[in-house]
């Protein structure tokens, strides 16, 4: 497919390197919403995709989507149950009720799982691409994984939620430092922290990582300026 010739690909606001993905890959979509990202990945690569969504209304809509394995739960730092604070925006519900605003007090009790406990039950021992877009819980997920569990991931594409006050800049810095120490190269696409890509060293060659970091990101920034927007990093 022509997408695999690209150095990076952005789907639904999440950037990753398509070259290492194939029909044998495993993609895990945390914060699947209505399945837009999951559907796009399956259509392009024919891979296995596990789509996890905490909102029960949205999780029902994932059932029956071709090639997608839907799971209903919140993913965080522990096993058990938690309150999900529902938002009028389909992509803004969060378990961080004490930090969240605009949720009107409506909540629902949902199961909470640790990532690798959930994946072990699905028979998954490695993840080629992990998408984290879970309204602030991305920090808890990353902190809950051991170094060995983190290294089972090839790429991690993350939307950090400091822009809406659900996480702090210090929490993001700790997550970035931890991933770097575990052998991941981090690249931010955009001025904000809404589109980070972390690639484990060895998944692609160092020349490719350097090219993406120094050439592709700058080209995207220049293109945005030409379109009348601000430089995006």
Quick structural gist:
With 233 residues, the protein is α/β, with parallel strands linked by helices. The protein is built from seven helices and twelve strands. It has helices at 36-45, 56-62, 115-121, 138-144, 147-150, 169-181, 206-226, and strands at 9-11, 14-16, 26-30, 48-53, 68-72, 74-76, 80-85, 107-114, 127-132, 153-158, 184-188, 196-200.
The CATH superfamily bears the name Vaccinia Virus protein VP39
**Would you state the CATH class?**
Alpha Beta
- Our count of helices gives 7
Q: Percent range for helical residues?
A: 25-40%
The CATH architecture comes to 3-Layer(aba) Sandwich
Strand order of the largest sheet: 5-4-3-9-10-12-11
Average pLDDT over all residues: 87
The CATH topology is what? Answer: Rossmann fold
Radius of gyration, in Å, reads 17 Å
H and E order: EEEHEHEEEEHEHHEHEEH
Task: Assign an overall shape.
Answer: globular
How widely separated are the two ends?
Answer: 29 Å
**Residue fraction in strands:** 25-35%
Query: Structural class per helix/strand content?
Result: alpha/beta
Low-pLDDT regions: none
Count structural domains. Answer: 1
Secondary structure tally: strands: 12
